[in-house]
Each structure stands twice: as C-alpha cells, then as structure tokens.
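Fold Annotation — chain and its backbone
Encoding — discrete vocabulary of local shapes
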Amino acid sequence: MAALQNKINLREQMPKYLNAEVHIRVTACVLKELEKLGSALYGALHICKQFDVESCPHKPVRTAVECIKHMARRIKRKMTYFFATQDNELTEALKQIPGIPILFIKYNAILIDRPSEATIQEVEKPKNQLLEVNKLKRAVFGEAEKPKRKRKGPKGPNPLSVKKKKKKDHLTSVHQELGPNEKTATPKRRRRRRKERREGQ
C-alpha cells in the first residue's frame, strides 16, 4: 500500500536499490488476507497479484504476519531473501530472527532497516566462543610461553665493500719519510754510488 501511495514502481526501483536482479514474491496467505480486507486494499491486492507466489504450507491459511514469520524462520539461512513490510508488529517479529534484512518505504524512498540486536549477537557469537576457548586453555594449561628471540651480535663489515690497499700508498709513505727533495735510489744508482766510494778510497 505504501508503494502505491508514494507512486513507487517496485519492479523498477528494487533492482536499482539493491544493485542486483530481484524477484519479488508474495505468499498465498498474504493474498487471501488482502482479499478479505476488501476494497480498502484493492490497489495493494492488484499489485501483489503481479508478483510470483511463494509456496507456503499453511492449510488453512494463516494471517499475513504469521505466514511471513514462518517463512522467515524456514529460509533464514538463505541470505538472498529480503522481507518488505510496513507493519510494525511484523517488523518487530522479524527482528527477533537473526540475519533477516528488512525493507520499508519512508520519505518516498525504499530503505533498509539497520541490523537488529539478534543479528548483531549472532555475528558476535564466533568471536565470543573463541574468547571462551582461549580462557579455558589458559585456565587449564597456563599462559603459553612466548618463544625467546635470539639477539644477534653486531655484524662485521662486508668483505666485498672493503677496499684493498694499493701499492701506490706504500710508495707515497716512503716518499713522505725521505722528504720532498729526496728520491728513492734505484738498484742502478746504488751500484754507481758503491763504485764511486771505492774509487775515492
């Protein structure tokens, strides 16, 4: 009825809102209730008859609220199902079932209700269970010792990065010891000096 009043075409708007292919379904119990309510909801009945009918096992038929609650419990693990309703009683009932996304119309737009407390608790269950298991392990086995890390000593210089001393450095140091004007004697000069000394004697 809200879609009719707000002139929202559900077939066009639902895929855009959910960004996915959407199959809108209604149950036989919902159609029967709309028929009983008469002309006041004739427009809603006309729209709902355009959708596919989801088979429900209710014979005799139940109220729309009871039927949808039963369907939500039966298919709650199939996360491809969204439940659209403007009924406050049904909304509160669906919020008691974890993992049920609820759509509604407000301000001329389709909106999705925030996750219920039951859904949040269901999501937190694995974390809480893991914490309880860890607490039990600590109580039984005590605190687990953390492996000690070996301290590494200072590393020596990389042999590839150390430069080798050149022979030129040795010659330079000898030259510095003799002085700037003195030159190192070659073997030929040493022989000449020895010869001169002998002749002088």
